Task: structure prediction
Amino acid sequence: LKQRGDLLYTVKIVLPKERDERLEKLMQEWQQENTYMPRGFEFGNNS
Result:
Protein backbone atom coordinates (compact mmCIF):
# COMPACT_ATOMS: atom_id res chain seq x y z
CA LEU A 1 0.00 0.00 0.00
CA LYS A 2 1.67 3.24 -1.14
CA GLN A 3 0.46 6.49 0.37
CA ARG A 4 1.80 10.01 0.47
CA GLY A 5 1.89 12.27 3.47
CA ASP A 6 3.88 13.48 6.42
CA LEU A 7 5.91 11.11 8.53
CA LEU A 8 5.99 12.02 12.20
CA TYR A 9 8.69 10.76 14.53
CA THR A 10 9.37 11.12 18.20
CA VAL A 11 13.02 11.42 19.16
CA LYS A 12 14.01 10.74 22.74
CA ILE A 13 17.45 11.93 23.82
CA VAL A 14 18.70 10.25 26.96
CA LEU A 15 21.68 11.71 28.79
CA PRO A 16 23.88 9.74 31.17
CA LYS A 17 22.84 9.84 34.82
CA GLU A 18 26.38 10.70 35.88
CA ARG A 19 27.98 13.99 34.88
CA ASP A 20 30.40 13.61 31.98
CA GLU A 21 32.77 16.57 31.79
CA ARG A 22 33.91 15.69 28.25
CA LEU A 23 30.31 15.66 27.02
CA GLU A 24 29.57 18.93 28.80
CA LYS A 25 32.63 20.61 27.23
CA LEU A 26 31.72 19.28 23.78
CA MET A 27 28.16 20.61 24.07
CA GLN A 28 29.38 24.04 25.22
CA GLU A 29 31.78 24.25 22.25
CA TRP A 30 29.07 23.07 19.86
CA GLN A 31 26.62 25.67 21.19
CA GLN A 32 29.13 28.49 20.69
CA GLU A 33 29.84 27.43 17.10
CA ASN A 34 26.20 26.74 16.17
CA THR A 35 24.11 29.63 17.42
CA TYR A 36 21.35 29.31 14.81
CA MET A 37 17.68 28.73 15.56
CA PRO A 38 16.41 25.73 13.58
CA ARG A 39 12.80 26.99 13.61
CA GLY A 40 13.61 30.07 11.54
CA PHE A 41 12.38 33.64 11.52
CA GLU A 42 8.74 32.71 12.18
CA PHE A 43 9.71 31.89 15.76
CA GLY A 44 11.90 34.91 16.51
CA ASN A 45 15.12 34.12 14.62
CA ASN A 46 16.11 37.00 12.36
CA SER A 47 19.20 35.39 10.81
User: Anything to note?
Assistant: The first helix runs from residue 21 to 33.
